[in-house]
Amino acid sequence: MVCDGMGGAAGGNVASSTAVKVIAEQITSSFRPGMSANSIKNMMVSAINAANISVYDISCSNSELYGMGTTVVCAIVMEHIAYIAHAGDSRAYIVSHGALTQLTRDHSVVQELVEHGKITALEAKKA
């Protein structure tokens, strides 16, 4: 799992560490061997949503942390299958046969501009 905080040094650290803790707790308490792919997906989405709520609640309760947030990318690997969930612009990659392949698509304004043909991928890299 990777959580990359934003919102200043203090805010970013609090947001990312909170997200890691909540997601890990949620998955640890919910995971069961033999879960279906759909159940794993739902569990991961629920864990990220719970982390989002926790980060938001902390942000609202402390003016120094207001507006903090974090990206997240997490994976569960079972029987040679990787289940990946993410939010934001932290990416998941796989290395296979010496090649690096991006598995996720950024959740960002820049990515939306690329997808809608407003800017090129090269312009996005410079943004």
TrEMBL record:
Membrane spanning residue stretches: none
InterPro entries on file: PP2C (IPR015655), PPM-type-like_dom_sf (IPR036457), PPM-type_phosphatase-like_dom (IPR001932)
Domain spans labelled PPM-type phosphatase: 1-127
Molecular functions per Gene Ontology: protein serine/threonine phosphatase activity
Full protein name: Protein serine/threonine phosphatase
